[in-house]
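Weekly modeling sync, notes
Attendees: S.R. (lead), two postdocs, one rotation student

Agenda item 3: backlog of single-chain predictions. S.R. asked that every request posted to the team notebook include the full sequence so nobody has to chase files. The rotation student volunteered to paste the first one in as an example of the format we agreed on. Action items at the bottom.

Example entry:
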Amino acid sequence: MNDWPFADPPDVATFTVRQIIDGTRPILLVSHDADDGGWQFLTGEALSMDDALLVALKEIVLRDPSVLLLADLPTGWQASRRDAAAQWVRELLPPEGEA
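Predicted structure, as returned to the notebook:
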């Protein structure tokens, strides 16, 4: 990963779920949080905290290189897609408490 496009280092902790790491569900929602600059890589479905994991950003990239297209996603924004083959759609995150 010599040409790492993210401002964060490859080993920065990111939030995801077990289903993405075990390969049973694709990444369909990416959030770059406004409050702490953290990254979340999710399935877009309701999640259980029992499935929550912290993994290095490089692990997410290895599982789905399409997230490299989101390296410049500003804090306070999210990107989603309807399936793993679809294009990412970027939008401003809704204010806290709204969804």
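Discussion: group reviewed the output briefly. The longest strand covers residues 13-17.
Action items: rotation student to repeat for the remaining queue; S.R. to check formatting next week.
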